Amino acid sequence: MFGRFSRDLGIDLGTANTLAYVRGRGIVINEPSVVAIDQETKKIFAVGNKAKDMVGRTPGNIVAIRPLKDGVIADFDVTERLLRDFITKATKRSGWFRPRVVVAVPSGVTEVEKRAVIDATLHAGAKDARVIEEPMAAAIGAGMPVQDPTGNMIVDIGGGTTEVAVISLGGIVSHRSVRIAGDEMDDGIVQHIRRGYNLLIGERTAEDIKKGVGTACVPEQETVMDVRGRDLVTGLPKTVEVTSKEIREALAEPVAAIVDAVKVTLERTPPELAADIMDRGIVMAGGGSLLSGLDVLLAEETGMPVHLAEDPLTAVVMGTGIALEHFELLKRIMLGPKRQP
């Protein structure tokens, strides 16, 4: 009876966005990992999309918080409230029937960070919480044959971390997790605009610039974009024109770190599996993989074919969803069952 009424969840608890997959219904939540909270009363004003709209636009006593940093929990209490809100919204149930939850975490997290995710999920209303490594979830969600005795390479570039892994026979053979991803790209753009134009912009504007004119390699045609911000000299609003060339220079450092992580992982890969990857190619997932020209640059640097997952933004959460559908089969690739006492 309890199985019939339960709404098991797969959650991609990301630094930038949180996605939730409900068993039998598909993806039901895709919202920013942001909570707007009153610092004085600790009352929550908004979660997700509504909270993100408040970033940089709130009065002094209300702050919009991103409770996850570099893929791990930075503020436990706020993360618990975020999860509770999303679990309630996704399941549409009262406290009678609590879901089993699978949460994707970076492969480089410590045992303490893993435990924090599990505890926050249990406190948020789950009856059973497990964690699965993000590159494994991304590979499953991208449709890669992770159970086969062949080499599969996944590069998952999220908001806080970049996960690179070689998977064979349902296990991770070699991997590298670096805490450089979309957020560092945005920060590089903010610093460049500040140094080059004495102009202060917010993270939302930086993200828009990255999507609009950001490139990882030289495009066929350079583009320009108008950017609005606050002049640090006069304190007044100001508009400047930036080119794709200068944004490419601003992104050079984080992009180089991501390419280096892929190279290091390939160096640690057994030769038989490396030969498989040469045939099959590298698969990219995560929002950061959508940076224009990044797949071309990675192919040039590694000499291997590079493909984007069918839907890079949802690959991880789809992987957690498939893990739910085949809970027993995939139990061994999850990181230890944890049940609320």
How are the SSEs placed, and which strands pair?
Layout: H1 2-5, E1 9-13, E2 17-22, E3 26-32, E4 35-38, E5 44-47, H2 49-53, E6 62-65, E7 68-69, E8 72-73, H3 76-91, E9 100-105, H4 111-123, E10 128-133, H5 134-141, E11 152-157, E12 162-168, E13 171-178, H6 182-197, E14 199-200, H7 203-213, E15 224-231, E16 237-243, H8 244-267, H9 271-280, E17 282-285, H10 294-302, E18 306-308, H11 315-325, E19 334-339
Parallel strand pairs: 1-9, 9-10, 11-17, 17-18
Antiparallel strand pairs: 1-2, 2-3, 4-5, 4-6, 7-8, 10-19, 11-12, 12-13, 14-15, 15-16
Helix pairs in contact: 3-4, 5-11, 6-7, 6-8, 8-10
Verbal overview:
The structure is a single chain. By secondary structure, the protein is an alpha+beta fold. It folds into three domains: 2-136 and 315-339, Nucleotidyltransferase, domain 5, CATH 3.30.420; 142-180 and 251-313, 2-Layer Sandwich (Nucleotidyltransferase, domain 5), CATH 3.30.420; 182-243, ATPase, substrate binding domain, subdomain 4 (Actin, Chain A, domain 4, Alpha-Beta Complex). Helices cover 37% and strands 28% of the residues. Helix 6 (182-197) packs across helix 7, helix 6 packs antiparallel against helix 8 and helix 8 packs across helix 10. The longest helix has 24 residues, at 244-267.
